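Hi W., the zinc ion complex you wanted:
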Amino acid sequence: MALKYTCEKECGETHARLGRVQTAHGEIETPVFMPVGTQAVVKALTATEVRALGAQIILGNTYHLAVRPGIETVRALGGMHAMYGWNQSILTDSGGFQVLSLAQLRKITEEGVKFRSHVDGSLLDLTPEYAIEIQEGIGSDIMMCLDHLPSTTAPRAEVEDAMSRTTRWAMRCLNARTDPKKAVFAIIQGGTELDLRTRHINELCQHDFDGFAVGGLSVGESIPAMYDTLEHTAPQMPADKPRYLMGVGRPVDLLEGVARGIDMFDCVMPTRNARKGGLFVDRGRRKMNIRNAAFKHDRRPIDETCDCTTCQGYSRGYLRHLLYANEILAHRLLSIHNLRVYVRLMEEIRQALREGRFKAFYDEWKSGFTDPKNTQTRDPSRWTKSS
Ligand SMILES: [Zn+2]
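Structure:
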């Protein structure tokens, strides 16, 4: 079997659940945050550093690795585990999202997506079968099906059309798998139209995918619309398979996602923000920018309550200096801090679930959170089983 999910404990007051995912590269405790390693590297960090901050699984990016260095090279170098020196699990996306956001001259047909590489302009043909072939070459433990993501402004008929194509492509992906040790996850689309989400779950869940992902969120819709869609979608997804929310989000979104029944998350936000000086502090509840002049002579760590190696050894003033001086070490140290905040939040969430106090943890965390986007949500005990 490619993957096994075991639910160990449910919250009872919310949809949150504690579990384990077993892949060919070991066990992952869920809920989990997965750092993004786009080019077969979590930017600026070694695999040893990523492991040390508590990450259990990382992401690789099919589109980026297919256009550079190319799948033949990835294969020749032994796949992403060997390249990066990472011996735990790897999840790869299908490349579909980057084709839409980066590639030029893309054309979607029933066969797949034709596009020009943003690196050298070469013409590539991403079919469902090729998406799986690339992911197998990367050595991924969890492969994502190629999906058709409609634009957020697409009319309903277009969303429905993209949804049916996503189902047909998902079946082709499942059939294209040659290595039974690699898991295949299907992606649920349907925009923010709740009945379409239900329909797509029912369509996809008839088939033997190893897990399911919620796609098409955090792509421009409002935060309340995202939470409402999640609240509707996640609890309907099969309880005996992992549930993955793709590309989301801020620490608060992870907590809200867990409360709605999500097990796996990824996002470039902690590393991308870090490289610009945007840091999460107070367990992810507040943000600060290390570039601020107020920190110039500040000898305190970024966050006195943080246990990361950056906060143990470096002052705000020094980190600010490194960033302004454009020193590589700034990117490394700030990425370590932000990733640790995300990973530690998930550790705290799992601990709370284990001890049967997730709802109290949620309330306490939210009580210290001021949402700059003013998107406070309803009490999660309102949307338990019966909702
Ligand atoms: Zn820190």
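The pocket of zinc ion is lined by residues 302-303, 306, 308, 310-311, 337, 340 (CB under 6 Å).

W.
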